[in-house]
Amino acid sequence: MIILDHENSHNIGELKKGKRILLVDGVTVSFDGFKALNNLSFSINYGELRCIIGANGAGKSTMMDVVTGKTRPDAGHVTFGEAVNLLEMDEPAIAQIGIGRKFQKPTVFQNHSVFENLELAMQDDKRFFKTLFSKISGEQRDKIEETMGLIGLKELAKQDAGILSHGQKQWLEIGMLIMQNPKLLLVDEPVAGMTPQEVDKTGEILTNLAKEHAVVVVEHDMEFIRSIASKVTVLHEGSVLAEGDMESIQNNEKVRKVYLGE
Ligand SMILES: Nc1ncnc2c1ncn2[C@@H]1O[C@H](COP(=O)(O)OP(=O)(O)OP(=O)(O)O)[C@@H](O)[C@H]1O
Ligand SMILES: [Mg+2]
Fold first, then answer.
1. Domain definitions of the chain by residue range
2. Which of 121, 153, 238, 239 could form a disulfide with 37 if both were Cys (CB 3.0 to 4.6 A apart)?
């Protein structure tokens, strides 16, 4: 008798630092004949913090849409872990398997405390009142405490999310993502609208997060990218133009041609 094990049918393999967690291979997405992604290929390792940069319209958000199952490519492969074909899965299944995405605008529950927001994010069952009135386990409490430490909001545990600063709301939302135990986090323009201090702290949070996850950050803020000093992928017209550390990117001829018109 053959027993199909649901867990094993999505076996992403062992996760360890330096091992590939995401492979985007030859992906093309067309909108009415226009190629938003054009034979795009790159990969991300577990334990890595990768920055993706590129001009408006370069295809950064479309790439995230493909990885999270929102947009289906015309061609190419997207593989999670060793062999999970993400193109066969729908959005909820992709979230379930461990890919979390943070959009630019924070969407926290304004009238609930920091702690409660994290508690709500942890539940599969999003029915508000049921969640808030049921008891959480010690283990769950520990996870919330640990996450509040990671996002620097421990002191504000009881504070309503509505009165947090823009930066603090962004961190809380990152925390809410963490509560769902993702392995790969996709974060779109996290530091837009932040104060310089908040930008620094966001860099710290994402760097710490990347140690136990893989983090892909789309950003326009070059100072921020320089400060986190990670590997950078430059997208241009839906393809990878260059990849490397910030210094090699700044000295890259193709990048200079496209960005500085040299
Ligand atoms: N649903 C869609 N229908 C038609 N064209 C689209 C669609 N989504 C994206 N595009 C086009 O695809 C290209 C890439 O868009 P995308 O949003 O991925 O760029 P981006 O790199 O995220 O840009 P930005 O920095 O402005 O956020 C753009 O030219 C955009 O107009
Ligand atoms: Mg975008």
1. 19-260
2. 238
Query: Are the CB atoms for 216 and 187 separated by under 8 Å?
Result: yes
CA 130 to chain centre: 29
Q: Rounded CA gap, 118 and 146, in Å?
A: 11
Distance 60 CA to ligand 2 centre (A): 5
SS3 66: helix
Helix, strand, coil percentages for the chain (3-state, nearest 5): 40, 25, 35
Residue 70 CA: which ligand is closest? 1
Give the up-direction half-sphere exposure of residue 252: CA atoms within 13 A in the CB hemisphere. 18
Distance in angstroms (rounded) separating the CA atoms of residues 54 and 222: 11
Which two structure tokens, joined as six digits, stand for 213?
């996850």
Residues forming beta bridges with residue 35, ordered by sequence position: 30
pLDDT tens column, 4-31? 444 445 677 777 888 999 999 999 999 9
What pairing do the DSSP bridges indicate for beta strands 20-31 and 34-45? antiparallel
Q: What is the pLDDT of residue 3?
A: 43
CATH homologous superfamily, domain 19-260: P-loop containing nucleotide triphosphate hydrolases (3.40.50.300)
* Ligand 1 centroid to residue 219 C-alpha, Å: 15
**Structure confidence at residue 236 (pLDDT):** 96
Residue 2 has pLDDT above 50, yes or no: no
